[in-house]
Amino acid sequence: MAPTLYDKKPEPGDLIEIFRGNYQHWALYVGDGFVVHLAPPSEGPGAGANSMMSVLSDKAKVKKEEIWDVVGHDQWCVNNQLDEKYQVRPIHEILREAQAYVDQEMPYCVFRGNCEHFVTELRYGKAESRQVRQAVGIGATLVGFGILAFVGIAAIFGGGSKKKNEEEEEYK
């Protein structure tokens, strides 16, 4: 996407979703072309598979950077979908709190405290990560299928009952 084009021009307080391939990075637009975001050491435009190493990080830094330095050549959009679920905090409070966090090191956990949790906490006062919830749901589904597959295989290959085994012994 060209740096001067927007699908929707961001307004201060908007959440910016950046598509990094296997995951999304999130930032908060604070105006004048800048965003505030929680960035583990491996996060950055074009990081690709290296940014997946953020799951190993337990610390991240809050940065204020120009939106194009954070987005790079990745696709992005304004995504305030949780506005339907939560009340948006007053914009001046969102911006004041975001600015207060800049340059601070914070705990980071991909499951409980990632960049999406950070920006939703700023906008709504509630930390939420839909991508984590979706990933956990997919993981639970895969585990469920794995258990069913194991039970099915066990029934096919090892499904003889004790009584059946005893009857076979009598015939020998």
List keywords for this structure.
alpha+beta, 172 residues, 5 helices, six-stranded antiparallel β-sheet, globular
Question: How would you describe this structure to a colleague?
Answer:
The protein starts with 14 loop residues before the first strand and ends with a helix. The protein is α+β, with helices and mostly antiparallel strands and 172 residues long. It has five helices and six strands, in the order ββββαβαβααα. It has a six-stranded antiparallel beta sheet with strand order 5-1-2-3-4-6. A hairpin with a 2-residue loop joins strand 2 and strand 3 (34-39). The chain has helices at 67-71, 91-101, 115-124, 130-157, 162-171; strands at 15-19, 24-31, 34-39, 59-66, 76-78, 105-107. Residues 47-53, 136-146 and 148-155 have low confidence and may be disordered. It is globular and about 35 Å long.
Write the layout of secondary structure elements.
Layout: E1 15-19, E2 24-31, E3 34-39, E4 59-66, H1 67-71, E5 76-78, H2 91-101, E6 105-107, H3 115-124, H4 130-157, H5 162-171
Antiparallel strand pairs: 1-2, 1-5, 2-3, 3-4, 4-6
